[in-house]
Amino acid sequence: MQKKLKLILTGFAVLISLSCSKNKHPEIFCMIGSEEFNALSDTWKSQYTKELLHYEGRGNATGPKGLLEGVCEMAAMTRPMSDPEFDKILKSTGKKPLALPVAIEAIAIVSHKNIKKTALSHENVISIFTGGMLDSFPQITVYGVNSASDRYRFFKETVLKGNKITDRIQEISGPLQLVDNVSQTENSFGYARPEETTSEIKILGIIKDGSIFYPEKKTVRNGKYPYARYYYIYITEQKPSEKTIEFLKYVLSSEGQKSLLPHGLYPISEKVRQETLQKIKLLN
Fold first, then answer.
1. What single-letter DSSP state applies at residue 200?
2. Burial class of residue 175, CB neighbours in 10 A (0-12, 13-18, 19+)
3. One fold for 2-104+230-281 and 108-214
4. Where are the beta strands (DSSP E) in the chain?
5. Which of 29, 74, 112, 187 is least surrounded by Cβ atoms within 10 Å, i.e. has the fewest?
6. Residue 84 host element (H or E)
7. What secondary structure letter does DSSP report for 4?
8. How far apart are CA 61 and CA 100, in angstroms?
9. Domain 108-214 belongs in CATH node 3.40.190.10
10. Residue-wise pLDDT tens for the chain (284 aa)?
11. Which residues of 199-208 are buried (b: 16+ CB within 10 A; e: fewer)?
């Protein structure tokens, strides 16, 4: 794994060096990290015209490595940086990584329409996806995405809290196919982004503290819906280039936040947005 990461970063560093050598301003304006940012970065490129953003989406682990080796000033991650990743960058560079939340992703628990329940407790969800059953449905079909995907890891960590997913789960290559399978299979369950669902299946609410919450913009942004996570851009606390600062301000602007919606992501709350902008302002 480490050898593969080194090869990826070496190749990307060469690409960036060649690009920067043609520019009067040699500062590195690039970002590296999760493949979940690929489509979003394409949108940002098309809308942000001040500079051309170079993005390489090869997995969360490449982000901290890129910061550590000075390949890019920005690391895109769909999870918080681990303590070892954080400490290694701080120890090797003397620069403390700074997490900037830029988007929110939510995952919905979905079912075939014949399931009469409209909401599940967290315990119900754990039972369904770890091999249990649901009331009068002793035989259920459970669908999930490929176990090598970032979506799978998100579901396992955020929803199942590390519990082992049942061996009887049927892995599907993509979320749209998963939704289609759930719509055609009675007594079935799965998970998807709300925006990936159709009227042919049911989005189930989640019971939390005696109330039912659905994955909607308001409940996701205020944190009441439990199955959600932040997307982060990491930089270091040492002042980044002006190019990077201006780009981050765009990402956190109204236009930048609106660009999340077509990708099934949610804007961060206004409170978090202002706090994040303040972090950037203090770097100047």
1. T
2. buried
3. yes
4. 30-33, 54-57, 74-77, 97-106, 108-112, 119-121, 141-145, 170-172, 188-192, 201-208, 211-213, 228-236
5. 187
6. helix 83-93
7. H
8. 17
9. yes
10. 555 555 545 554 444 443 433 333 335 689 999 999 999 999 999 999 888 899 999 999 999 999 999 999 999 999 999 999 999 999 998 989 999 999 999 999 999 999 999 999 999 999 999 987 666 666 899 999 999 999 999 999 999 998 999 998 999 988 999 999 999 999 999 999 999 999 999 999 999 999 999 999 999 999 999 999 999 999 998 888 999 999 999 999 999 999 999 999 999 999 999 999 999 998 86
11. eebbebbbbe
Tokens of 28: 């590195």
**CATH fold of 2-104+230-281:** D-Maltodextrin-Binding Protein; domain 2 (3.40.190)
The secondary structure element, H or E, covering residue 248 is helix 242-251
- Sequence ranges of the domains in the chain: 2-104+230-281, 108-214
Report the candidate in 274, 264, 171 with the shortest Cα–Cα distance to residue 215. Answer: 264
Residue 124 — φ and ψ, nearest 5°?
-60, -45
CA 255 – CA 46 distance, rounded (Å): 12
CA distance 55 to 75: 10
In angstroms, rounded to a whole number, what is the distance separating the alpha carbons of residues 55 and 37?
9
8 A C-beta contact, residue 188 and residue 143: yes
Are 233 and 75 in contact by the 8 Å Cβ rule? The answer is yes
